[in-house]
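User: Can you help me understand a structure? I only have the sequence.
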Amino acid sequence: MAGSRHLEKRELWKRLSLDSSLVEYMDSNKCIEELLKQLEEEHRNVRREKLAVARLQREVARSKSEGTMREKLIHELEEERRLRLESEKRLREVTVESELSRTQMVSLQQQFSRMEETVRSLLQNQGPLEQTAVDTMDIMNAYKDKLSEEVRKQKESMEEVTLVADEESPSEGSGTEEERDKTKSLLD
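Assistant: Let's start by predicting it. Here is the structure, written out as tokens:
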């Protein structure tokens, strides 16, 4: 057995020495195959990395667009908030204005009611007022007539007094004429 093993080893060495070029060839083929496998593995890794990079770029772009969208949404929300506040302010102003207008309307209605009442009262009293106006005119005319009569009587009595005075003192004629002028101007 030891001999047969030895023979086998010998045969193997012979074959290896004859086939040394084959072994080298087989080793280089194995090396090439190994390198090809490594190359393919590298290609797969590169493809995976490219896909990962592309996915990350899409995510970055999406997050940027989401960031931009978020900024747009925030801006729109702020604009909406500002518009809502302005609308609420205008609503308060209109409410106050409406309240004032309502108060003024109530006041005007009250004034109108009072005016209507006054007009009704005047219309009811118009008949007696016309009669009173006629009576007042009659009283004024009568007073005027009476006053004229009294003035005429005063003039007559003054004239009589001056005539009597003229007859009693002829030497004071110039003074009586002045007195007559004064009396006439007073009577007028």
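Now, to help you interpret it: The chain has a mean pLDDT of 77. The helical segments are 2-18, 20-168, 173-187. Let me know which part you'd like to focus on.
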